[in-house]
Amino acid sequence: MTNTTTTPRAKKLSLKDKHALMTRGLGWETNYVPMDEAFPYDKFEGIRIHDWDQWEDPFRLTMDAYWKYQAEKERKLYAIIDAFSQHNGHLNLSDARYLNAVKIFLTGITPVEYNAHRGFASLGRSLRGVGPRVACQMQALDELRHAQTQVHTISHYNRHFNGFHSWTRNFDRMWYLAVPKSFINDAMTAGPFEFLIATSFSFEFVLTNLLFMPFMSGAAYNGDMATVTFGFSAQSDEARHMTLGLEAIKFLLEQDPANLPIVQKWIDKWFWRGYRLLTIVGMMMDYMLPKKVMSWREGWEIYFEQSGGALFADLSRYGIRMPKYADIAVAEKEHITHQAWLMLCQYNWAAGIHTWLPSADEMDWLAAQYPHTFNRYYRPRIEHWKALQAAGTPFVNTNLPCLCQVCQIPLAFTETSDPTRIAHRESRYLGELFHCCSDGCRDIFEAEPEKYAQARLPVQQLLQGNLGGPELPDMIRFWGFEPGRDTGPYEASEDARRWAQWKDQPQTTAA
Asked: In angstroms, what is the C-alpha Rg of the chain?
């Protein structure tokens, strides 16, 4: 006789219910100390949260699924990296000049990713809501993974090219790397909600496409399949980060009307800070890729003016408007990359990348991309510098530039109303005069002068004797570079000589 009694099966949980149990079920009310003492930072910015359970994660990704997906991406990524290395993939690059764009990425972006991991780990501890806490934990892991895979992806080039050897030291000390360093340090020393708006919304959602899309497309077009593979591996993470940023904005704005002016102020600030940081990406797009993909102007119009315009039109129902000074950024799209590259060229003796003046064909491409400005303002300067170079007297600037107190870029950008006049703003705090590159940076300074007055500007540090020694070679070695080997014009570099030797010989495959 058989027992026909069966135990009813438990109903299978939906993805939403499973995610709720894996997140909301992890929280509790403290009884040994008040909640405000356990989480002291999520109220002092003035943000009001009434119901943390209203936070919705669009991906509803649980940690067990997270590890599974990431492990699969890791297997594919490292298989391709190994194949690239074993088959001398660097010989398939379009030109060795391209590697200077990769140096910019490694020294300027990878440390930002690592510090973003630290910021999100801290953020997860600062928020009493369990949903955003879990989301921040996953993004912290993502950012750490990105830093690691970028270093591994690029490590092959360190065997064959100069300038890849001391990227952490470069980031801490190098003058132009103070720009990304000041950006991420500014975000990490803000309150938790400001950090969330700075990274997850203003940068990840509004501006990140201007970093990843042109850079990975440029890598593919110039034969750098190792970097392309990393980009593909990171894209699903970036999609999740963008949704986190949008959810953060909507969550804050739906919680309380009093949050609106605070959030708008942060959007204004971090749009401008992120936009100034992306100058290095625009410079790479216009000048550093031997094979061009698109110009900075095209990328800005697609990824900010069109996509960003649609985003802020959608957010207008919450009362959010376009970021302050977005119109200035639109006007500057015709100028900033040329001005930044020419600034770097005249200081290439003190830069960890090699620079060069564009060829005649490249100048024709720039003229087609910037028909209103390039031939009028920039071609004459480049042709004059090329004539000096041909005569054996290249233009080199050994003067110390004035740096912006906020973004820390040398004052090289011009007034939008007059591209022949350097933009220069001043502000006084505690009787001391501070310099800024724009109205946007001056606004940021004057909102929190006690914060930005402490900035460790490289030029001032040099004058105070804090950059390795009294002579310029001492300073360059303090940054982590060897003068003339890792610095200077590309045409005179070891990288250029080695590349010419390799391309004169038949390509070989490693055993």
From this structure: 25
